[in-house]
């Protein structure tokens, strides 16, 4: 059972729905049904949501594999918390006007660190 991963996958799902609602809100405001219509706020909202969709799945897959392979609960929580925190930081920093660059940068660094650590840990466990 993936009890810890379920927590972070659920919270990530709620983050994704929040970002999706923002895209919908921006579409209504800009009166754009398809594409971005060149609207800067809509472009930003679409990319913020898409960025989450691009990075969250691999992070959650690696998190689940870590839990299945028997990583200590605290380690799974650290990895899950890092991924969730990173995605929130990135979405907020990127979506804010003007951008909060340090939040965006910290978000991507934490995301990459989580993916690399989980991938190496899973690989090491699988090979040893």
Automatic annotation (TrEMBL):
<keyword id="KW-1133">Transmembrane helix</keyword>
<dbReference type="Pfam" id="PF01124">
    <property type="entry name" value="MAPEG"/>
</dbReference>
<keyword id="KW-0812">Transmembrane</keyword>
<dbReference type="InterPro" id="IPR023352">
    <property type="entry name" value="MAPEG-like_dom_sf"/>
</dbReference>
<dbReference type="InterPro" id="IPR001129">
    <property type="entry name" value="Membr-assoc_MAPEG"/>
</dbReference>
<keyword id="KW-0472">Membrane</keyword>
<feature type="transmembrane region" description="Helical">
    <location>
        <begin position="6"/>
        <end position="24"/>
    </location>
</feature>
<dbReference type="GO" id="GO:0016020">
    <property type="term" value="C:membrane"/>
</dbReference>
<protein>
    <submittedName>
        <fullName>Inner membrane protein YecN</fullName>
    </submittedName>
</protein>
<feature type="transmembrane region" description="Helical">
    <location>
        <begin position="106"/>
        <end position="127"/>
    </location>
</feature>
């Amino acid at each position: 059972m993936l009890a810890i991963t379920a927590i972070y996958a659920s919270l990530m799902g709620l983050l994704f729905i929040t970002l999706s609602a923002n895209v919908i809100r921006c579409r209504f405001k800009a009166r754009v049904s398809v594409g971005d219509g060149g609207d800067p706020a809509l472009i930003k909202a679409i990319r913020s949501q898409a960025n989450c969709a691009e990075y969250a799945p691999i992070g959650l897959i690696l998190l689940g594999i870590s839990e299945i392979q028997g990583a200590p609960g605290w380690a799974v929580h650290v990895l899950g918390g890092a991924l969730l925190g990173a995605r929130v930081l990135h979405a907020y920093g990127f979506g804010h006007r003007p951008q909060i660059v340090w939040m965006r940068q910290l978000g991507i660094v934490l995301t990459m660190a989580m993916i690399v650590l989980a991938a190496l840990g899973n690989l090491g466990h699988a090979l040893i």
